[in-house]
Amino acid sequence: MLPQVIIIGRPNVGKSTLFNRLVGKKLALVDDQPGVTRDRRFGEAHLLGLDFTIVDTAGWEDEDAASLPGRMRQQTEASLKGADVALFVIDARAGITPLDEEIARYLRTSTVPIVLLANKAEGRSGDPGIYEAFSLGFGEPVALSAEHGQGMADLFEALLPHLDDKQAEHEAEVEASQEEEDYDPQAILKLAIVGRPNAGKSTLINALLREDRLLTGPEAGITRDSIAVDWTWTDPKTKAERPVRLIDTAGMRKKAQVVDKLEKLSVADARHAIDFAEVVVLLLDATRGLEHQDLKIASLVLEEGRALIIAINKWDVAEDASGLFNGVRAALDEGLAQVRGVPLLSVSARTGKGLDTMIQAAFDIRDAWSKRVPTAALNRWFDDALAANPPPAPGGRRIKLRYITQAKTRPPGFVLFGTRLDMLPESYRRYLVNGIRRELGFEAVPIRLTLRSPKNPFATKK
């Protein structure tokens, strides 16, 4: 693993801005109001030849451990234990505050090396704060501006003594692993968990990990950033280990209800996570059943071409469980007519019920999503489908379907060649798509069917 560097500081000193600067992308949400970041976010940082994992954390607040800010601080304390270096960030323009001094006292009890950063030091307005920072006892602070990219060379020099040897060890491990030619790991499953606020998405991921990795609580909308966590799932039947990247997302409410700027950013981040994923689990709340917003989220996932699983969470407290399940199944088949038979599972993040079944279903549906059918086998099925149900002849004009080929996977895409395809009814197109899904093993994954007619060489050229 790459050496790990954690960013610590009170709220609104620019930790997420520094994180984005080091990873070279705007991965973490940034806003002027404090407390935007709530969960730990990991990224691959590159700084003048130094490669390391950078960890953004929630702003450190002096609150009761049971409160939301208190639980956020516990997440930060937990992440410090696995770090190789901690970047303690202060606001140079604001100077040293009592909370900065409290954080410094805590960090002095840790064995992790501390690099003190005086952020927002552009111009001369930050000079008094830089001088004050010496009183924290971590030596000379590194003056920088994460927003403008100033001081990155000084940060490199401060990190180099702590990371140089660890990076060399990492490069040696990578080189050794590349020499193991027989080693062929299975591809990591990119699995996003989406749903309305308070459906239990973060709790579900914590249950899979068997640790309080993500911040949870009764308050709706705790998760803001989309958080990716790499994990290894052990198949309870075969004991085989499978790599999984779990992606937690912000709750997605009706568009008309989203007025807060941060929530808009969070929902946009969740949509980006869907696009990044291979399989998406839409989590429903058993105490609320299936709502119109759930169908809109499911349609969004299918429009993006992602494999979809729907899981009803909080099954341990569901009333009339059998009636609920059958009602949701019927509503899905009616509301998602473009993909009938989407896997529907019952789970409980609290008790662990159905979680292994959900992960196995995710691997299975990814196999179908990635499947490629040889052209010969595909056209044998195609000939049988035409013989069983020939295309119509609207107005007495025959529609001739010549052959079909699979153009892509992930999601599966097919191209149908023929003449007068502009006259082919949508019902017949659905007949072909449903046949592909049912007869060729594509299950309930989104399928793209493109119609292509040959160009007329005698058409008048403009």
Helix content: 25-40%
The DSSP helix count reads 12
Uncertain runs: 34-38, 172-185
Gross geometry: elongated
- Between the first and last Cα atoms, what is the distance in angstroms? 61 Å
CATH superfamily of the largest domain: P-loop containing nucleotide triphosphate hydrolases
CATH third-tier fold name of the largest domain: Rossmann fold
Derived structural class: alpha/beta
Strand content: 15-25%
The largest beta-sheet arranges its strands as: 2-3-1-4-5-6
Keywords: GTP-binding, Hydrolase, Nucleotide-binding, Repeat, Ribosome biogenesis
Family: Belongs to the TRAFAC class TrmE-Era-EngA-EngB-Septin-like GTPase superfamily. EngA (Der) GTPase family.
Protein name: GTPase Der
Binding site for GTP 2: 195-202, 248-252, 313-316
Give a quick precis of the structure.
The protein is of the alpha/beta class. The chain is built from twelve helices and 15 strands. Helix content is 35%, strand content 21%.
SSE arrangement:
Layout: E1 4-8, H1 15-23, E2 41-47, E3 50-56, H2 68-80, E4 85-91, H3 98-108, E5 114-119, H4 127-132, E6 142-143, H5 152-179, E7 189-195, H6 201-209, E8 227-234, E9 241-248, H7 261-276, E10 279-285, H8 292-303, E11 307-313, H9 321-335, E12 344-346, H10 355-369, H11 375-388, E13 400-408, E14 413-419, H12 426-439, E15 448-452
Parallel strand pairs: 1-3, 1-4, 4-5, 5-6, 7-9, 7-10, 10-11, 11-12, 14-15
Antiparallel strand pairs: 2-3, 8-9, 13-14
